[in-house]
Amino acid sequence: MSTTTTTLPPAPAGAAGPAPSKAAVAEEGRIGLRANFRHIGALARRNLLQIKKDPESMFDVLLMPIVFIVLFVYVFGGSVGASLGGNRHDYVNYLVPGLMAMMGMNIAMAVGTGVNDDFRKGVMDRFRTMPIARSSVLIAKIVVELGRLMIATAILLGMGFALGMELNGSVFGLLGAVALAATFGAAIMWIFILLGLTMKTAQAVQGTAMLVLMPLQFGSSIFAPTQTMPGWLQAFTDYNPLSNLADAARALMQGGPVGDSVWWTLAWAAGITVVMAPLAVAKFRKKA
Predict the structure, then answer these.
(1) Residues 141-177: pLDDT tens digits?
(2) Long-range pairs for 111-114 at CB < 8 Å and ≥24 separation?
(3) Is residue 288 over pLDDT 70?
(4) Which of 126, 198, 255, 264 could form a disulfide with 169 if both were Cys (CB 3.0 to 4.6 A apart)?
(5) d(Cα 238, Cα 117) in Å, to the nearest integer?
(6) More confident position, 25 or 194
(7) Where are the beta strands (DSSP E) in the chain?
(8) How far apart are the first and last CA of the chain?
(9) Residue 281 burial (CB < 10 Å; 0-12/13-18/19+)?
(10) In angstroms, what CA-CA distances link 102 with 54, 129, 132, 152?
């Protein structure tokens, strides 16, 4: 596939794009693995060029980690740090691995709004007329967003070390925590892609996403230990995948016992991908 396809002008807002041709759909079934990777690379490059033309789209990645860590450390760090048996410095060690889990959720929301916006502009309709795998369009989105997630994670870790975070575990443990957060983040992106393909507007995607994000993030061990929560809320946090991810990242970075948190996180990531990825691709193929 030539990368010149990325420069096609979008259709006017609200205009109906061309429907996928039967030839394009039939050709999709004959696409080999090498061609699939080539298509993903070309489409990822197209998404990167969009970011280059609109650098303001990187503001959330660059500023969100800074705002969150400063806000929570200096507003809640004293009280939560005391509940941990320490001070604000101890809370930094507790908070940063938890925020790594949260970054993936927040950035995943951008995937859903981006897919929705591309459909509104008619870009996705043009892609669907081409002899490329439908999954390659969506995977390219995820690849670019994973790159954005890595940038946000690097800034978060840099701010954490600047505020006094200590790495009591090994460097390999730190890399393992980053890889685990990226794996779970990629799985979550399939949910938001499906949401972006289902909702009519990007605003609806954002509104619905916040209804999902808020309970998952604050009803977890990301920001504070769960021991002081009511019993019913503790039961929720025990099954909350973000709690498993945050606990696993802390254990890997601080050198504590990992337990079953890593395996539960990987199980959640695999289960979400197996269920949501085919649904998202099918919805993308049939979306009017």
Answers:
(1) 899 999 999 999 999 999 999 998 888 888 999 999 9
(2) 111/141, 111/142, 111/145, 111/189, 111/192, 111/193, 111/196, 112/192, 112/193, 112/194, 112/195, 112/196, 112/199, 112/205, 112/209, 113/196, 113/202, 113/205, 113/206, 114/141, 114/196
(3) no
(4) 255
(5) 36
(6) 194
(7) none
(8) 24
(9) buried
(10) 25, 36, 33, 11
Please state, in angstroms and rounded to a whole number, the distance separating the CA atoms of residues 8 and 132. 16
Q: Model confidence over 31-68: pLDDT tens digits?
A: 667 777 888 888 888 888 888 888 887 888 889 899 99
pTM given for the model:
0.82
What's the rounded Cα separation, in Å, for the pair 125 and 118? 9
Tokens for 59, please give them.
Answer: 């503001």
Q: Quickly tell me which residue has 């509940």 as its tokens.
A: 83
Burial 127-161 (b: 16+ CB within 10 A, else e): bbebbbbbbbbbbbbbbbbbbbbbebbebbbebbe
Task: For residue 171, count CB atoms less than 10 angstroms from its CB and return exposed for 0-12, middle for 13-18, buried for 19 or more.
Answer: exposed
| Encoded tokens for 175 | 């890399």
